[in-house]
Amino acid sequence: MPGARHRARHRRRLDVPDHDHVTKKLTLGIVVIVGLAGCAAQTPQPANSSQNKHAQAAPYEFRLEYETLEMEDGVKLAVTFYRPVARKPGETFPALIEMVPYRKDDFFALSDYGYGAYFAKNGYVVARVDVRGTGGSDGPVPVSEYSAAEIFDAEQIVDQLSKKDWSNGNVGMYGLSWSAFNALMTAHRKPPALKAIIAAHGSIDLFYNDVHYNSGALTLDYYSHQISTDNALPQSPDYRIDETYFQNRFDKKPWIFTWMREQQDSEFWRQESIKFKEPLSVPAYVIGGLLDGYRDFVLDVKKHSTAPVIAEIGPWNHAWPEYGEPGPNYEWRQRALRWWDYWLKGVENNVLDEPRWMAFMRTGQPPATNPVTVPGYWRCEKDWPVQGAATQRLYPQTQQQLANAPAPKAASDVLKYVAGAGMAAGGWWGELTGDMAADDRHSLVYDSAPLTEAMEIMGNPLVHLRVAADAPFYQWSVRLEDVAPDGTVSLVSGVSINPSQRYSRLAPQALTPGEPTTLTAPIHFTTWRFKPGHRIRLAISNAQFPMLWPSPTPGSTRLILGKNTWFELPVVPTRNTTDAACPLPPPQPSDEAPFGKTLENTGTVFTRQRDDDKGESTFSTTSRVAWTQYDNEFRSDESYQWHVKDATPANAHFKGKRRNTFTIDGVEIDLLGEIKVESDATYFNVTFTKTLYKDGTLVRERTWIERIPRRFQ
């Protein structure tokens, strides 16, 4: 979800440093890039002599080639090849595929270059492919993300590249976010030439662990609007505005309508979710981040795979390890080369003999929204689970306490529903957060006694709550927090719970007012050291605004204390220093694209406004990014706002604008996407408008309006 927005689930990164402007227009043809320095010298130095000989080889020169690949149905997909120049007749190379809908010729071109150059100079053909109906590829916009057509295309691309005259027959897939998703999905289909994948920040469960429904609860993240707007841009590199463009792109109904109609788990979400299919049998190197909403997928893949899996989880956000925020960072591409060499080139380099589990242990830090690095150390294990791991169960008690045993007497605590509470935690689980005390004021909180010795956790804490409610539907938000001796509160992790799915995700049931029921959920993967003198806090609320869309009924719920209300911490033995076995080379600079530069990148600016007297909350974001490529200039501006009143939570709203202004060969193409979502107790009213201008003149405008029944959200 791009650009300056680190938490964008599938978005682009447009923060490549400035570099010289080269006057050359993108065309279908070949741009030869020769004699580029640097990346191959960063190749790791393995132990045996044959590996050293490979690692010390001079970097390959490579070419950029803009071509198309024709699918079985005749649709041609646009591909950019980063292709090494053979050093001897008949030399062949493996292929690495990254396939996304984020427009390789404009939005992604600058940031793609460093990765394509890195692997090409080390003897790999990198193929960057636009999903059908997006970017430079032909065909209509798909019916939704990760469509059956998209994954079938990926299978065909794997097969076609394995048969190219420059290919050694072996193919890998890799990518962050969207391309991690489709790499996992394609691997499940087992095309013969696909030998291994690398996936960062992906998912194997599209309903529970993606950007649309947060553990089954509606999340109106602005990504849903961004991608629906960007899908309406003209096809690169010509950006023709004609009837074919209108039919295939501009006039296609935005995806957000589909996602909002699919409010419950179903075959729609499970069709390509590999969690519900046979175990993965293609080797996978998976990377996650403790500040990323998809971090659970790392363990999910390990548990759902019969092939070798290497797993790494760092302290950062939705990013690759060499630049993710906050640090510390490392150069993951060195290990990636060894991974590819082993599976795609047949190099015996002992990569599978190294620890297959590496995670950053956060040793506890005060609340902060912009740290460069966080304190901690790296733990490397032979595999998961961590040796010596155990669980510790804690029980909420009366007087806001946590204890090692259940409350001796039956009791319950009443929780008033405050619809606009939760802004301190941000837009999804894992944001860098300030002091959580603002959210805790509208929550039930339970604190342990001050710890007498340090406790470290790694894994998914488990929460088990006995609750009752005065209405058929509420949502629950559970947060694990660290209370420092000075009273400041740090967020460790959290989870959302949609109670209608307590018995079955496929057959939701309303709550019976007044009747107790049990809710169980794993809190999102985390690491943390609770220091001596600190308290462990469990915070429970019925709102996590704007992360969760507010439930419609003002009122209250009860937490029933006793043996059926508890949570478990995944405790691991405490250490103090990074394991010597951890492969952590320092980050290396990437090659910069010679054909453009970033002009502006504001990052995403968050604004939170809470009026407790009026019971009103507003959360808003703005961002702006601009860049050049060849003689063309590109700009994207966006703003979003979520609003709710505690007294009338059914009537929440979300609105936003995204404007893409592209100047191509002196012609200005201006696409504006506007969205408004308003709810009441029984419906969502969704309005989406696309407006297209050319050189300031209105070309086309179209509005979609739909009234969608509200179902357990």
UniProtKB/TrEMBL annotation:
InterPro entries to which the protein is assigned, alphabetical: AB_hydrolase_fold, CocE/Ser_esterase, Galactose-bd-like_sf, Xaa-Pro-like_dom, Xaa-Pro_dipept_C, Xaa-Pro_dipeptidyl-ppase/CocE
Domain Xaa-Pro dipeptidyl-peptidase C-terminal: 337-577
GO MF term list: dipeptidyl-peptidase activity
Keywords recorded for this protein, A-Z: Hydrolase
NCBIfam families linked: CocE_NonD
Protein name (database record): CocE/NonD family hydrolase
